[in-house]
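help with this:

***
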Amino acid sequence: MFASLRKFSGGTLVTHKKRTAQVPTKTIEPPASVLLPLQQHIGAVCKATVKAKELVTVGQVIATGTGYVSTPIHAPISGKVKSIKPTLLANGQSCEAILIENDGLNTPHPALAPVRITSKDELLQAACDSGVVGIGGAGFPLHVKLATKDAIDTLIINGAECEPFITSDNREAVEEPQRILRGIVTLLDWLEISRSIIGIESNKPEAIATLAAQIQALELTDRITLQSLPPRYPQGAEKMLIFATTKRRVPTGGLPSAVGCLVLNIDMEKLLRVFWIVTSVNNILILRYF
């Protein structure tokens, strides 16, 4: 269930200043307006399905994917579309963006409802429809990752959080360990993956202890291994994490699936429980997006 420190070759030691590691997560008030670029992920840019001055509700699809490596965008607030015009992205490129003015009502879209899942294909479609993408730099759509044709035997959960300041993964592990673990089990079951490894740097002792206790309590020691990793940048990079946890080397230009691995962030596993799973009855999974 628990593996000792392992590491990859190279990397660098950085001074960590995790000043928010002991600060509980807080829910912030919705902003007065949101600007949503139609380039939210790697792959094809989305196409707006709303127009200026149109009223939208929470969870409404406001842009659709235009290719396989693409996924819809949903309104995070209710209100009025003020404009759709080009905006500059952090990478220096530009694309159209939808500006929504908040009406303060937080009105949910009337079509939101649980989705019944009875097969892997339906799970993948639900993942696509949900608009969930990875929170790494590329923003890789979840459904594309899950739909790999390669044989996967190991689900790796990235809780390394090797950057000097960020602490969100640490707080998730401390505050929501059961949701993280149940999200992992969901994917192990539906994707028929035999095991999962959670990789966390050793400078997060509270997160490690919390997850370890819950793995024991939920009797998951035969399916989920927790590995403590030396604090080293870039420990959280996909290929580095795969080598540190499995000693497998992803070929140059290759994907994790080439060595039988699927890598997801620890936040993604919690998301599966918070936004999707309502219950599981008779092998029928019921998912909710919002």
Notes: The chain is about 25% helix and 25% strand. Helices lie at 120-130, 142-146, 168-175, 177-190, 205-217, 238-246, 266-276.
